[in-house]
Design the sequence.
């Protein structure tokens, strides 16, 4: 089996966040053979955990995103897409991935991070790669605090991100502030398609918390298995191995092959 086609852009600098990080970009099978074709794009947080066990938070434990995407695209389950892994910057991750400042934990720089993605990363990717424009062709996703971040940014900017992946999202953050954000009076238009999941072995109350968030989305007009997929994963823990098992299914829900545009 051939390795996925990956390209690394090192030390990508942000003036919004005043730091730098690596980006790693996956292009789908057939990308170079179809020079006129443009592709949807998915931005994923914690980029060092996605493609390579050598750079992962737990050595050897990555999400296998490249191999899984190749498999699902080649078997016709997922439309060919570009995937951008945005590395985190260690100690400041908790600040950049959270929408509000919490007592003792800090945080609250998610709006700055959103500007970094929208005004710095996206224009760079659009220049360097053949991506399709528009929210329906643009996704954002992550796990844990990265899942919380994806929900926050996606619900705030639905005209930019039309596909959201929230794996084991940390909805508990700052007294579950994301509930109030999602339940705010104004409807989210256009409504993004959302993958939401949680493992049953991730800790006390967390399943209940995520299911309460799911119910808020249903009250706001999302429909299960239409534009919202919710999954409670029996026995799954809060780790990279658990999330790796969900990559294929969430890609298939967010970017199904039958919606493919040439």
Sequence:
């Amino acid at each position: 089996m051939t390795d996925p086609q990956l390209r690394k852009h090192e030390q990508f600098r942000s003036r919004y966040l005043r730091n730098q990080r690596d980006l790693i970009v996956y292009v789908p099978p057939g990308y170079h053979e179809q020079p006129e074709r443009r592709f949807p794009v998915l931005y994923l947080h914690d980029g060092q955990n996605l493609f390579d066990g050598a750079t992962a938070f737990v050595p050897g434990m990555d999400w296998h995103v490249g191999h899984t995407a190749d498999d699902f695209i080649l078997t016709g389950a997922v439309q060919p897409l570009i995937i951008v892994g945005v590395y985190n910057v260690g100690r400041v991750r908790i600040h950049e991935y959270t929408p509000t400042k919490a007592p003792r934990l800090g945080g609250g720089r998610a709006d700055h991070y959103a500007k970094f993605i929208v005004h710095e990363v996206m224009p760079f990717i659009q220049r360097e790669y053949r991506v399709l424009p528009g929210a329906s062709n643009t996704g954002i996703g992550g796990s844990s605090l990265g899942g919380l971040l994806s929900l926050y940014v996606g619900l705030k900017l639905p005209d930019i991100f039309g596909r959201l992946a929230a794996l084991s999202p940390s909805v508990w953050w700052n007294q579950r502030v994301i509930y109030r954000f999602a339940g705010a009076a104004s409807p989210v238009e256009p409504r993004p398609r959302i993958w939401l999941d949680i493992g049953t072995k991730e800790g006390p109350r967390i399943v209940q918390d995520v299911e309460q968030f799911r119910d808020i989305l249903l009250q706001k007009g999302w429909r299960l298995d239409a534009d919202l997929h919710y999954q409670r994963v029996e026995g799954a823990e809060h780790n990279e191995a658990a999330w790796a098992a969900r990559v294929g299914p969430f890609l298939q829900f967010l970017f199904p092959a039958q919606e493919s545009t040439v």
User: Anything to note?
Assistant: The domain at 5-259 is CATH 3.40.50.1820 (Rossmann fold). The chain has one domain: 5-259. The mean pLDDT is 94.
